[in-house]
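Hi P.,

Sorry for the delay on this. The queue was packed all week, but I finally got your sequence through. Input first:
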Amino acid sequence: MKTFTRRNLGLAAGMATAVALTAGSMIAFTANAAPIVGDSAPIFVDYNTASGEQISLGDFDGKTVVLEWTNHDCPFVKKHYAEPVVNMQTMQDDASAEETVWIQVISSAPGKQGYLEAEAAMAKNAERSSAPAYTILDPSGDLGRAYEAKTTPHMYVITVDGNLAYQGAIDSIRSAKVDDIAKATNYVTAALTAVSAGEQPEVTSSKPYGCSVKY
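Then the structure:
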């Protein structure tokens, strides 16, 4: 069973709750809630990963978490995985060294661009030397919609307390050109640096860029 809750600490206790049922899953959320920087991140429970494990956001209490929406065929994703820069892989390695949990999410629906089953997702990561801690398979799109993920990549940083510290673009230059990576401000790296120091990131939200998530 997959369960989501979107919690807004400022909501009145009596706010109406909506529940939507899909095949094999349940999503629960407050009626007008959305992922809000500074509030609790949407909680997910028992999600299948490409490695065969099931993970929940609560498994990582006390750790910083990065969520990366990905689509291996998207040129904007290819930009950040391209050799020799390997920007995304370097960020994943740096996060692991800091004991930050990096989670890829594939929300492409079956038959849509970027859809991968477990074995193919693992093979793709091996092919491009990508090393996230986990790769969540979200073919229903439930997790993507809970986080309102719009593009690939769309990035989120969650603090050790479970609060959303950053959401949006990976960096400041909206292009698919590898050469632009070195010129850009990396919002995710900056957010992780700030969170590690117990501070609020200077940029907490930005408009994501890339291919639309193929729900």
